[in-house]
Amino acid sequence: MTILQEKTKNKQGYTLHIVETEKYKTNNLVIKLKSPLDKDTVTKRGLLPHVLQSSTNKYKTTTSLQSYLEELYGANFYIDLAKKGEYHVITLSLEIANEKFLKESEPLLQKGLQFLSEVLLKPNVENEMFHEETVEKEKRNQKVRIQAVYDDKMRYANSRLVEEMCKGEPFALHANGIYDEVDSITASSLYEYYQTSIQEDQIDIYVIGDVNEGEVDSMCEGIFTLNERTPKKLQHGEKSSIAEVNEVIEKEDVKQGKLNVGYRTNIRYGDPEYFALQLFNGIFGGFSHSKLFINVREKASLAYYAASRLESHKGLMMVMSGIDFKNYEQAVGIIKEQLEAMKNGDFTDGEMDQTKAVIHNQLLETIDTARGLIEVLYHNVVSDTSTPLNEWLEKIQAVTKDDVVHAAQKVETDTIYFLTGMEE
Fold first, then answer.
1. Is a pLDDT exceeding 60 seen at residue 424?
2. Please, are residues 411 and 265 in contact by the beta-carbon 8 Å criterion?
3. Is the pLDDT at 325 greater than 60, yes or no?
4. Which residues contact 168 (CB under 8 A, 6 or more apart)?
5. Where is 337: in which H helix or E strand?
6. How large a percentage of the chain has pLDDT more than 70?
7. How far apart are the two ends of the chain, measured CA to CA in Å?
8. Residues 151 and 265 in one domain
9. Residue of higher predicted confidence among 130 and 2
10. Which domain holds residue 303?
C-alpha cells in the first residue's frame, strides 16, 4: 500500500507541510495556529477565527468575500476551533479547484494562498481595532454556540464530565470560550489579542494536492511574511494519583439518563504504549464489537448507546452511555467489570485481530479525504513527535495481547458523572 509522503520545511515564523498527490481532485490549503489553552484568553480566541472569516482589509464585507470565493471557481472556505490536549487550535481551510483541470490557465493555487494570507495577516482593522459591527455580530453567534452545548444533553454530559474531572486544569475549558465573558470583549481588546496570537502562536501551513513541491515552497516564501517565534510549549501537569473516584450526580429535565465515566490512561500520543492503548480502547468500547457495546447495550439491554473514546493528547478516555434512570448502579457495575476483564486479559485473539482490522480501515478511510489526512498528520505537531503513516499502521499490527494488558493496567477511573431526571 502506498502511503502519502509529507514533506516538511521550516520557514521564518511557520512550518510548511506539502503532500504531493493525485489522489484528490482539489487542492487543500490549511493554516493551523496552536497556543496553550488559557482561561484569560480562551473566549477571545474562541471568537477570533469567526471575526477573521467575516471580512478582510481587502474584502470589507462578508458578501464581497463570498463573491471573491465564487470567482475562484466556488472555492470552499471554512474555519474550525478545537482542543488538542491542552492546546487551543484555530484552523483556516480553503478547498480550491486544481488549475490543471480548467480550460483557462488561472493561477488558482497562488490566488488561494494569497487569499488565506489576506484573511490571516490583513484583517478588517481601522484605528487599532476590528470592524465593530462584525465583532458584535460574531459575539452574538458565539453565545449561541456556547449555549448549544447545554441544549444538546449528550454533549452537555460529556463537557460536564470533563469540567469535573479536570478541575483546575486548562483542559476543563471549552474551545468556544466562557459564556459570561463574551460581552466584555471589545473590537480593540480582540485586536490586541490577535496581535499577540500572530506574534506567538505556532503556525503550520498545509498544502495538499496535485502540486509541485518547489512551486509551493517559493509561492509561500513570497506570500507569508511572519516573524521568527519560539512558540509556548505545554508543561504537562497531571494528578499524581487518584485517591478515590469522584462521583457527580446532577438532575435536569431529561427523559433519558446520561452516564459518562472519565479515566486517566496515563498514556499520550507519542508514548511507546500509545498503539496498545488504541487496541485497548477498540476492544473495550471503541467499536460495535467492543465489550461495552455487547455487554451493556446488547446483553443487558441497559443502554441506548455505550461507547468509549480517547483524548490522545491529554491521556484521557471517556465512556458515554444513555440509560434509564433506574439502571444507574447496574450500568456502572457492568462498565467496571469490562475494565477489569481488560486488565485481566479476558479478551480473545479474534477480538485483537478484528480491532486491528477496524483501526486499519478507519485510518485509511480518514486519509481518503484531504481534511482527514491533515488531521492525522497534525497529531505529530501537537505531540512534538514524528510517526509517518506507514509506521503507524505497522505499529498497530505489531501490538501483542500482553501489550494491551500492560496498557490496561495504567488506566484509572477518575470521575463518574450521571445526568438524571427530576423525578429520580
1. no
2. yes
3. yes
4. none
5. helix 328-343
6. 96
7. 55
8. no
9. 130
10. 246-421
Closest CA to 272 of 144, 122, 395: 395
Higher pLDDT, 423 or 203: 203
Report how far residue 210's alpha carbon sits from residue 217's, in angstroms, rounded to the nearest whole number.
14
User: Which CATH number is 102's domain given?
Assistant: 3.30.830.10
Residue 251 exposure: Cα atoms within 13 Å on the Cβ side:
4
Report helix angle 401-409 to 349-366, nearest 10. 80
336-394 residue pLDDT tens:
999 999 999 999 999 999 999 999 999 999 999 999 999 999 999 999 998 888 899 99
Residues 6+ apart with CB under 8 A from 135: 47, 51, 185, 186, 187, 190
Cα(338)–Cα(99) distance, rounded to whole angstroms? 54
CB 179 within 8 Å of CB 146 = yes
pLDDT of 217 higher than 90: yes
Whether 110 and 35 map to the same domain: the answer is yes
Short-list 308, 339, 310, CA closest to 408: 339
pLDDT computed for residue 240 by the predictor: 60
pLDDT confidence band for 413 (50 / 70 / 90): very high
**CB of 115 within 8 A of CB of 68?**
yes
Amino acid residing at 410: K
**CA angle (23, 26, 31) in 5-degree steps:** 105
238 has a pLDDT exceeding 70? no
Helix (H) or strand (E) holding 420: strand 412-421
Task: Categorize the per-residue pLDDT at 102 as very low, low, confident or very high, splitting at 50, 70 and 90.
Answer: confident
CA distances 291 to 276, 296, 334, 337, 358, Å, are 17, 8, 10, 10, 15
- CA separation for the pair 22, 189 (Å, rounded): 44
Determine the residue type at 39: K
Are 260 and 407 members of one domain?
yes
- Farthest-apart Cα atoms in the chain, separation: 68
Average pLDDT, the chain: 93
How many domains would you assign to the chain? 2
How much is the average pLDDT of 225-246? 80
Report angle CA 92, 94, 96 to the nearest 5 degrees: 175
C-alpha cell read off for 286: 471503541
Q: Of 208, 223, 238, which marks where a domain is finished?
A: 223
Q: Is residue 414 a contact partner of residue 246, using CB atoms and an 8 Å limit? A: yes
Are 160 and 191 within one domain?
A: yes
- C-alpha–C-alpha distance, residues 27 and 97, integer Å: 6
Q: Helices (H), strands (E): how many in the chain?
A: 14, 13
